[in-house]
Amino acid sequence: GVFEGGSVSGIPVANPDMTGNNSATVYKFTKGNGSPWYSGIFHIFPADIDLTQGTTFSIKFWSPKANVNVRFQLEKEGSDASPNISVDQTVTQANTWVTLTYDFAGIIDTNNAYDKFVIFPDFDDAAQGAGDGSVYYIDDIKQIAGGDGCGENANLTQIY
Fold it and tell me: In what order do the strands lie in the sheet with 68-75?
């Protein structure tokens, strides 16, 4: 798997909780004890994300803790030409699959190029607490066309 920060891991594993998400395989991310507060998982695409296909993204997320902030950030690998842009969502329930939706409409310049996303579980840039060993699961990372939930950009569907 790929990840940012230290003392973290990300690997495809068998889904530990089929309730609310029947995918056989999901992505496991451990925010290791003492790892940086900004630790996360990223994926770089071979081509830029086609933002004409939608500026809203969704992920299925499972957290062992309630009230955890999860940041979804778009970046251009190796370039500062397009500013990093992010949206935060809060997981309100523990130990259950939830769908988090990240709407970049109105805050993203679609003329900018992005080929990378980063997901930061338990992101807190105010307190900046180190990782505590919590294990998170991520699945069904999707780009939603037109904001209506219909249509998906094939290269963003089912990363894990």
Answer: 41-44, 116-121, 68-75, 85-91
For residue 117, the cross-strand partners are: 43, 74
What is the band of 157 on the pLDDT scale with cuts at 50, 70, 90?
Answer: very low
Q: Give per-residue pLDDT as tens, 59-109.
A: 999 999 999 999 999 999 999 899 999 999 999 999 999 999 999 999 999
Q: How many residues does the chain have?
A: 160
Q: Count Cβ atoms within 10 A of the Cβ of residue 46 and give its class: 0-12 exposed, 13-18 middle, 19 or more buried.
A: exposed
- Between the alpha carbon of residue 55 and those of residues 17, 33, 64, 110, 114, the distances in Å are 29, 34, 29, 8, 11
Q: What's the pLDDT tens digit per position in 9-35?
A: 578 999 999 999 999 999 999 999 999
73 near 83, Cβ under 8 Å?
no
